[in-house]
Amino acid sequence: MEWFNNAVIYQIYPIGYCGVPRKNDFVQSTESRILRVIDHIPEIKRLGFNSVMFNPLFESSAHGYDTADYTKVDSRLGTNEDFKKVCQALHDNGLKIILDGVFNHVGRDFAQFKDVRQNKFNSQYKDWFHVRDGNSNYNDGFFYEGWEGHYELVKLNLYNSAVRDYLKEVISGWVRDYDIDGLRLDVAYCLDLNFLKELRVHCKGLKPDFWLLGETLHGDYNKWLNPEMLDSVTNYECFKGLFSSFNELNMFEIAYSLNRQFGKENWCLYRGKKLSCFLDNHDVSRITTQLKNPKHIEAAYTLLFTMPGIPSVYCGSEYGQTGDKKDGDDGLRPEFILSDYVGGDAHIAPLPNLITKLTRLHSETPALYNGDYTQLQLQNRQYAFARQDGDSKAIVLLNADDKAVTFDIAEIGRVDLPAYGCQIYINGKAML
Question: Does the predicted model carry a pTM greater than 0.85?
Fold first, then answer.
């Protein structure tokens, strides 16, 4: 079995996590901030995660997605040697490593684009980008394409074989130096499909079980999620349903999406495929902020870890951290101080305690990481479904109501669930 089949992912946005300045002066920091991750490993393991995904941590001008150098760890975080120590410690503890591959665009401080800025149409790197006559917002004396109108993010020309070869060399270097196990491909929905095919061949050649996750938003995910391209994509359709079903007390919304995606009819879109599911991440409001009623938080996490897919949790959310997208990205990406959360009653706090149970149930139960999906019962405020893989069977019960309810399920009989309650039965045994 490939390692990512039963992965449970812990997501870290390093520039926020380490509390670095939001603008890079490109002076090497004397503080190796990225080493903080090593101190966090025992808690990540205690919570039951088996994989860590890092958002951009290579040299950039500001937020990580404006890459200046794919081969150098960001000066604000530490050195390449520091990150090698982090990766070694993660692997020594049995944790897989996923990096954020930002290959659609680079920052204006990227060396090859700086050459274009200096030499314009005479630059040997002109064709690395989408450069043409005109001018830019920065008065460069030429026009270039930026990602979705953000001209600090310079779009790479992925039709250029030299660019594709360069990016493949970058990935080879990451595998050689850090022994990474997979990539999250930023804005995969923007990437050339032939480039994705080429990337898959290259990465699987480096490691047969190398995992490729693509960031996608809408449309038919099969466009990217197929045997020629990506192993997984982000399930933004269900992301919305996961919180709004509770907010509107309408479990039909998420049930419709899960039936559409994973039901047993031949027309269902993603049966047998692994989508990446989440309640929040570094780009959206935290689930604790998103929910109108905080008492729904435990049922929401239970649904996340029992629905089909590969679940991930964004650093800090396991402790109920808040953050609102309307306040800007910085509010979603704060510094993480381990001592603020670990120690005292942290090990018995309700939400981390529940997540610890859920991560282990998901990674150890074939029905949850590999099973099919069958809807059993559905009302506005109650929802029950089953997952099955061979002899492994899970039944999930969720009550979004403020009153206790009784479920009547053939395989397990009558079950009383309290207000806002949730329960998982594995082969007939209650697990929560």
Answer: yes
